[in-house]
Amino acid sequence: MYASCLFCARPFGANESIEAFPIGKRLAFDAAKGRLWVVCGHCTRWCLVPIDERWEVIETCERTFRDSRTRVSTDHIGLAKLRDGLELIRVGAPLRPELAAWRYGREFTARRRRTVTLSIAAIGVGAGGVVVGSALGAGSAALAIIATGAPALQFTGILGFSLLRLLDNARAIRVPHDGKELLVNREELKQTVLVPTDDAQGWGLILKHSWARFTLTGEDAVRATTRLLTRANGAGAGRRAVSSAVSVLGTGETVTHALRDIALRTELLSGAHRRHMSRFIAEAEFASAGVGGGGALFLSQRGRNPHINPASLALMPAIDRLAFEMALHEERERRAMAGELAPLLSAWREADQVAAIADGLLVPTVVEDKLDELKAERENRVQ
User: Fold this and answer.
1) Among 208, 220, 254, 305, which one is most buried in terms of CB atoms within 10 A?
2) pTM check: above 0.70
């Protein structure tokens, strides 16, 4: 393979990600048609790679693109950026659901691992106290006082875990809005809900914070919800839950449709909650009228805060909550990189026409048959 551009004659440079093809800083590939290009970083022209050097490289590019954590795709073309600076341009239908499972599975699993570690550490203090206290107290009456300290140490461990929970509840989430920072604690997160809207985005957020409650839409809703869901999903999730969340995203035609569907389901839950609480409060008023001031006691005995909505960001179904956070990250990356896709799509169409002519010149029928066979094998492996 040549190491410089066919059009401007300047060097392509090198990459470390594609071992079988360490040439170029930007590679474009069409797995369905078996085409591979090196995109010149200087003149941006697409240089077609000789046909006998493509197949292993295309498969490697496909796997690498699937594993990429930074990528965006449209209906026809996708762009992935790797850590060593290599950019992969993938021509073909997007692979968003498959990619999301790999990309977010690791992140949510790490969150769960961190939560479990903190819990075990707190409980371990108490368990260690029991063992040490029993060992010291069993052998000598003189150490009986130390033995009596074992329950205290166990209680300390439980108390430590409880304090971690209390600190998490008290730690406010800072949400930027209109040049200010709004503070939202976990209890207020239980009163913050998603709502469907009629705008292009399809959803908004009723935000409860330190001094008011109001509705956010558009970019304000995206920024606030992204921060709030990071806290709401702070305990992480297992791979099965992440896969289920990816399936939820795959039910909509686009990510936007999937987000609106989640908001609609949340609205149904909120409506059921409002009807339930109306009956609940009516019962409380009846009890108050009957026993004189007994309404507050009735509410406390029922053990339910009428302001806490089970459809809120903190309490909504975990799968929907995970899917919503994943979709927001997907949408943010798509917007950040979407500006680069339009010129790539135009350049690909031109390069594809040239490649079709080049691949069709002087290619024997037996070679075309072999290419079709290799394409079919590759598609079976991908599926």
Assistant:
1) 208
2) no
pLDDT of residue 142: 40
Residue, of 275 and 153, whose pLDDT is higher: 275
Distances 135 to 138, 139, 142, 156, 377 between C-alpha atoms, Å: 6, 7, 13, 18, 66
Query: In which residue are the tokens 């066919």 written?
Result: 6
Q: How far apart are CA 333 and CA 327, in angstroms?
A: 10
